[in-house]
Design a protein that fits this description.
Helix content is 39%, strand content 13%. It is α+β, with helices and mostly antiparallel strands. Bound molecules: iron/sulfur cluster (SF4). Iron/sulfur cluster binds next to loops.
């Protein structure tokens, strides 16, 4: 069972089959990790991400489409339009499953078509077809042009116009971050559609099916995945981050907002929710369905609510629902767009430059979203993101990005481990790629002290490695949210016992650091800690366990780092804007800031990188890079 890829050359409009060597499959599994490795091998440094020399890989994990919990996911790997380093973007929808059923685990797309095209992947064959009449359509209109049984991956006008944070859509799901939609646009690639009837092969079908049944029950009975996420979706985080001082407010100036309730998951549920829904084979079903313009659409996630809401000073939920919808239709990442807007609002407030947007004013936003997507007039500048804008207009200290990618919706001054994650994340500031320590620094059932630095490096690396392996196998990362034992949810989160357990996550840092460097000692499989490992084993026949997963994740984190190093990235780029590392939080606790240098020192040491953040020769040899 070795992965089958197709290499497509858009210049010559030809394709050929590629069988992935067994060794690569065992070392990188699929999805994000294998995508990054292939990109590292196939690309030379210095390539412009929007040139024909960029390589665009869309691939699945070995579990994609097997029916295991939350495995409709697929990955895109390419050179990052926002940062110039590595890009990976993960997405739900049906495309990944259909690609696999069509007989391909992944596509490696090279070159640039001389005119708009789409790829049709049908039962083991690929045709490169004319897309002239699709050019100019939004993501919804484009998908409607294809048979409803097809899996689709398309761009809207933003991708065509090379908006740097353009996304790609599959159904209503979005590969949002790092400008993957702009890369498709730069290749004149409007869409990829797939359909097939192939069965996804399983190594031990009986054991796999029994395990999936047991695991699904476990997910449904867990307070986080069985209740909180299905009741409120990620939107349920608004009130929590607000209470813990992590809710980005007015361009990350403050960490809480007195109007947060109006944009909360509770308000969304009470006033707008028609039902919850989810990706195929997902028992968690975190998606919100809401009404807009007489039809049922996907509701906003936490990131969109916070960054269009408190971060712009706007408490109108209906407007946020609408903006979210239009961003998806034009094909733009709501995180980068909203943080670019909050930076522009601060420029306006400081009388430096007026883009017609200001804090608390909602009327212009819908229009501005459209103009950014079409790169109209001065709005074309906003299509480049906050880093490029700050190089022209100044205010670098409040341009909220790392490596050029805007931060997600957790103020790291009250979650310093999340700050370390943003700074070290290979694709730029990303909560998920950064290990998502905000989820335990926020308080609750496993309250890890949010502003302590010692021990955060080890935890950050642990979760970064684990998430990379989970994602590479084809699972949604939310399947990892069961790692906090049910029992802990019974404790008083502000009580002594919960505090002691949370604290022990930091005090056991030396042991965790040791295990991270000797992952083979973790040769067990546990449903409660890393349920994915056994599932991968039964599906693929690979000898996977918890330690092997950490090893795969570590290898991927390092190959991605090496891709960035080759492009000139080093310790100097593992940074956050001065507002977060030097300024004082002007509310609540005035002494809080992210003491990044302290944590980076520990982080590099545990990773086996030198003081400039470059993986050492010994480290690379040890993990077989
Ligand atoms: S948890 Fe949410 S995002 Fe993840 S697979 Fe399920 S519905 Fe999709």
């Amino acid at each position: 069972m070795r992965p089958i890829y197709a290499e497509v050359n858009l210049n010559t409009r030809t394709w050929s089959k590629v069988i992935i060597p067994k060794e690569l499959y065992e070392q990188y599994l699929g999805g994000k990790a294998l995508g990054s490795k292939l990109l590292y091998d196939l690309m030379s440094p210095g390539v412009d991400p929007l040139s024909e020399d960029n390589v665009f890989i869309v691939n699945t994990g070995p579990l994609t489409g097997t029916g295991a919990p939350s495995t409709s996911r697929f990955n895109i790997s390419t050179k990052n339009v926002m940062t110039g380093g590595i890009a990976t973007s993960n997405c739900g929808g049906t495309f990944g499953i259909k690609l696999k059923k069509a007989g391909f685990d992944g596509l490696i797309i090279k070159g640039k078509a001389s005119s708009p095209v789409f790829l049709e992947v049908l039962d083991g064959a690929i045709e490169i077809k004319d897309a002239t009449d699709l050019w100019g359509l939004d993501t919804e209109e484009t998908q409607e042009r294809f048979d409803s049984s097809y899996g689709k991956l398309v761009i809207g006008q933003a991708g065509e116009n090379l908006v740097k944070y353009a996304s790609a859509a599959s159904g209503e799901r979005v590969a949002g971050r790092t400008g993957v939609g702009a890369v498709m646009g730069s290749k004149n690639l409007k869409a990829i559609v797939a359909f097939g009837t192939k069965k996804v092969a399983l190594d031990n079908e009986m054991k796999f099916k029994n395990y999936v049944k047991k695991w699904t029950r476990f997910i449904k009975n867990h307070p986080m995945t069985g209740q909180q996420l299905s009741m409120f979706g990620t939107a349920g985080l608004v009130n929590k981050t607000n209470a813990s001082g992590m809710l980005p407010t007015l361009n990350f100036k403050f960490g809480s907002w007195d109007k947060a309730e109006a944009i909360s998951g509770e308000a969304l549920r009470e006033k707008h929710l028609t039902r919850n829904s989810g990706c195929i084979s997902c028992p968690i079903r975190c998606e919100r369905r809401v009404l807009f313009d007489g039809k049922e659409i996907k509701g906003p996630e936490y990131e969109t609510l916070a960054l269009f809401g408190s971060n712009l000073g706007i408490d109108d939920l209906q407007s946020i629902i609408e903006w979210n919808y239009y961003c998806d239709k034009y094909g733009m990442d709501t995180i980068s767009l909203a943080v670019t807007l909050s930076y522009a609002m601060e420029l306006q407030k400081n009388r430096i430059k007026d883009f017609g947007v200001s804090f608390g004013e909602k009327d212009a936003i819908k229009d501005v979203i459209g103009k950014i997507a079409m790169r109209e007039g001065i709005y074309s500048e906003l299509a480049n993101g906050s880093k490029i804008l700050s190089e022209k207009y100044g205010g670098k200290e409040y341009a909220i990005h790392a490596k050029g990618l805007e931060l997600a919706a957790y103020d790291p001054r009250k979650a310093v481990g999340m700050g370390l994650g943003y700074a070290t994340s290979n694709r730029g500031a990303c909560h998920l790629d950064g290990g998502y320590l905000a989820s335990i620094e926020i308080g609750g059932s496993l309250p890890v002290p949010p502003t302590k630095t010692k021990g955060k490096a080890e935890l950050c690396i642990f979760f970064q490695n684990l998430s990379d392996a989970v994602s590479s196998a084809g699972f949604c990362l939310f399947t990892s949210q069961t790692f906090i034992p049910k029992l802990l949810y019974k404790l008083n989160p502000s009580g002594k016992a919960a505090g002691m357990i949370g604290n022990s996550m930091l005090t056991s840092r030396h042991m965790l650091g040791f295990l991270l460097n000797h992952p083979r000692l973790l040769s067990m499989n546990s449903m409660s800690l890393v349920p994915h490992a056994a599932c991968i084993k039964y599906a693929t026949g690979l000898k996977i366990n918890t330690g092997k997963m950490l090893e795969i994740g570590d290898r991927n984190y390092n190959i991605e780092r090496m891709f960035n190093v080759r492009e000139g990235f080093a310790s100097k780029d593992d940074m956050l804007p001065a507002r977060l590392t030097e300024d004082l939080l002007e509310e609540k606790n005035p002494t809080t800031r992210v003491r990044l240098r302290e944590m980076l020192h520990d982080y590099y040491k545990v990773r086996g990188w030198d003081k400039d953040g470059i993986p050492t020769v010994q480290k690379l040899k040890k993990i077989k890079i």
